[in-house]
Design brief:
Length: 630
Amino acid sequence: MGYREVYDTWTADPEGFWMEAARAIDWDRPPSRALFDDNAPFYEWFADARVNTCHNAVDRHVAAGHGARIALIHDSPVTGTVRHISYAELQDQVARLAGVLAARGVGLGDRVVIYMPMVPEAVVAMLACARLGAIHSVVFGGFASHELAVRIDDARPRAIIAGSCGIEPTRTIAYMPLIEGALAEATHQPDFCVIFQRDQCPAELRAGRDIDWAEAVRSAEPAPCVPVDGNHPAYILYTSGTTGQPKGVVRATAGHLVALGWTMKNIYNVDPGEVFWAASDVGWVVGHSYICYAPLIHGNTSVVFEGKPVGTPDAGTFWRVIAEHGVKSFFTAPTAFRAIKREDPEGRLIEAHDISGLRALYLAGERADPDTIEWAQRVMKVPVYDHWWQTETGWTIAGNPVGIEPLPVKIGSPTVPMPGYDVRILDRDGAEVPPGTLGAIAIKLPLPPGTLPGLWNANERFRSAYLSRFAGFYETGDAGMKDEDGYLWIMARTDDVINVAGHRLSTGAMEEVLAGHPDVAECAVVGVADAVKGQLPMGFLCLNKGCTRPHDEIVAECVARVRERIGPVAAFKLAAVVERLPKTRSGKILRATMAKVAEGAEMRVPATIDDPAILDEIRAAIRPLGYGGG
Ligand code: COA
Ligand code: AMP
């Protein structure tokens, strides 16, 4: 069957389609049906099944005789090490860590916050939680204490599992001070912390609270897999929304297993035993789905890469990893390729590596610009497939179903909706627009298995943020169009979320931090185009009347403040003091207009603007930063 037939099979019988896909999973009690819609618009999948994620990702492969197969390859140019972990070793490590947690009371439904760098132990920690039916919430290492505290207070974990440090190319980041800072700020406190000590910067453990991972695991009783209900939350992953309070995206167990299992062959075109590499971070959804869960569920070898596309040690690192480990299918964000292209425009460094075993490159996380795609095609000599998805969906909404049938690539489009997704382009009133017309991208409910059933402790927010604008649809927050061939084109966000180096960030959260500066009366943060990172945040600060302090000082304090409160990942380095902000006559800040001014783009002055002269003031204020055009 080709793509069209497969998609039509799903349309004709969604229930049958997903029950068929469910056959790839080992069930403790098979589902009696796929969709549970009694609580619509809160849909559930395979709710009456009993299943364990860790069993499906690890134990069943060992039981099937594949214990010696490599499950994880830790390739760490920042420490100069490469480590292979077989499925049998992974099973032992996971079962023992689960034993450590279980012995201290962690069980079904308890939350565990994981704050770890890109080491295989991060995957072990996630799987150990899954083994017990505990719900993990991984926090990206580039977030600061405050962001960690916000997540601790929302998830209320019984335990925290952390590494002692992360290693960036230019510095080692001790995690313990960040954890202490978070716990000092949070009202909720965990019962205990398990610390994975790294030689580069061991942490001082606090007696009575902290447990040394290696020591505890050595003497631990391995814990068995605990079957859970199909709709039991597997994890919570916080993502940026429009405010400083992140959204806790929930992933339900059974749908996650079925959907991710389905994607490995149909989208990424790999068979069990082959090497798959997603160069992302376990702190993001790509890391959850494609470093940890999907490759393991499918019986692949997954590469855990601790390094950067450039500078560890050079722009040839990706090629080395692909060649050395025999990667068949590779997934990363376009920003990584822009960084490589800047360092090695001719792609010379690839010549030293034989990447002929690679079948394809997959890009996601942000818009893949044509230049980057064409460069990657030319240098790597493999097909380059853009695909579009979100933390909320956990897997591809639109992509190229290569394992079913490779569709012609249209550069700039992530191709077509996957089975399970009925994607529509809607106008302001919720009416579908004709092909080629821009609109809000919405997905007809129910969303497929593996997507979010709701937000952690915030179902009203789930409803208002995603389900209320268009009745019967999930609002993606992206705008774009469909062409005559049914290809999707993703153009922009419709909210205040920006995408910096493939990282999703909230300008609203940054504005909250800036507004807390004692001299700032009002502010706005917008995303401006950047050649490598896609977008960069830029802040505009209006100071309190009578403030006579040097502007440079205030700007520097604001930059430091965002780094301290949100973290280095915000990459907030551009800010300017302005007299006033451009607003509509009804008082709404014209952020999109400010971004256009900053980028020096051709623009029509909005008819609703209160005073057009402000735009010249803005332009003048950001010229010293190298923005504003001319
Ligand atoms: N822990 C601590 N700090 C981190 C971190 C982590 N896990 N990840 C990033 N940071 C820091 C960086 O060191 C940098 O700090 P600096 O301001 O002191 O230089 C800052 O956060 C910004 O990081 P980043 O935006 O990643 O920029 P970079 O200049 O270090 O690297 C790229 C740029 C493009 C090479 C890099 O962003 C990259 O590899 N991106 C891949 C995209 C990706 O993985 N996306 C995930 C979704 S698929
Ligand atoms: P995240 O939740 O961090 O994965 O970010 C999801 C958002 O990133 C989407 O809503 C889009 O705005 C953007 N995005 C992800 N993949 C793509 C893509 N292939 N093309 C365009 N935008 C993308």
